[in-house]
Amino acid sequence: MTELAPDVTGLHPDDAVRLCRQLGVDLQVDALDEMWVHTYFGEGQPWRITQQVPAAGRPLSSSRTLAVRVSVRAREGGAGAREPRRPTPPDRPLRADGPGD
Fold first, then answer.
1. Nearest CA among 59, 81, 90, 70 for reference residue 27
2. Which pLDDT belongs to residue 18?
C-alpha cells in the first residue's frame, strides 16, 4: 500500500522532523541559502515550513522522502495587523476659534 505524505506546512522545522521520524519519512530541507540552515532549528526560531513536495495527502515516492522549503513566517496568533487600541476620534471640522467662542 502506498503511504501518503503528512501535512507539515505551517509547522516549525523541529516539529516537522519529529512527525516525519514517527512516520518513518525522510525530511529533506531545500536550502535556498546554506548560510541560514543552522538557524532553522531550535526553540523560538521564526522559521516555518511554507511548501512541501509531495503535497499533503499525495503518495510518497519509494524513497519515502518529503522535500520542504522553509521561510520566515508569522506564527499563528502572533503579532500582525491589529485593530487600533483606541478608536480614532470622529472627523470634526477644524475651528480657528478657541473653545467656547
1. 70
2. 93
